[in-house]
Amino acid sequence: MTEEQQPHTQLTTAIDTDSAIIVGDPARVDKAAQLMTDVQDWAYNREYKSILGNYAGKRILVMSTGIGAPSTGIGVEELHNVNVKRAIRVGSAGAMQTGINFGDLIIGEGVVRDDGLSRQYVPEIYPAVPAFNLMALAHKYAPQAVYGIIRSHDGFYMDNNAETEAFWSTKGIVGGDMESGALMTIGRQRHMETLSILNNVVLYEGDLAAGVNDLVNGESAMAAGEKASLKLALDILSDPSLEA
């Protein structure tokens, strides 16, 4: 009997890998392809664009999920359905502390679940945390990254956004995104190992000390951060210790 494709991502178990990188932007899938060999296009349906490739001897899926928790949640569930055991998000973030520059990598040690979707799975008091082994490998390959708690939210244009971000900044939150809370919460429910690696693309409000040069050179710094974040995820997923 022929296996049916997953309805949104069009994945099947024929991908034959336990490891995936998820990104928000479909264009970032093409950036990942440049770092891999033997790249094979898999599917492009709605916001879900996927490829398969090899990196350091490891077969890895890269798939886009679009923006926000709901589409990310669908992607994670369908990855689980085709036997993916490890999923690393490579995305972008806005800094929530001063001193975090364009292109700096922010790696979430945990997530404030300020999104709506993850609450449909478990109560708010349930923690969203990454897999210890993936986090340990992040420290191995990127000891210079910014590590801390991040916040996942559902929108950019609410009237109280600045006030809300200022509140969470005072609590030590290092960055904000829209997908990591859903990834880690759903992943944990499905017995998947997860991690979130974020490229900083927005300086924290009021961080004028970063200087004019950072603003002028921001585009190239962010492009370098995007490449570094993808390479870090590939290095982690291909680390021999995960096969032990």
Automatic annotation (TrEMBL):
Keyword Signal: no
Keyword field contains tRNA processing: no
Top EC class for this record: transferase
Annotated Gene Ontology cellular component terms: cytosol
Keywords associated with the record: Glycosyltransferase, Transferase
GO BP field: nucleoside catabolic process
Reaction(s) this enzyme catalyzes, per UniProt: uridine + phosphate = alpha-D-ribose 1-phosphate + uracil
GO terms for MF: uridine phosphorylase activity
Pfam families: PNP_UDP_1 (PF01048)
Family: Belongs to the PNP/UDP phosphorylase family.
Name by which UniProt lists this protein: Uridine phosphorylase
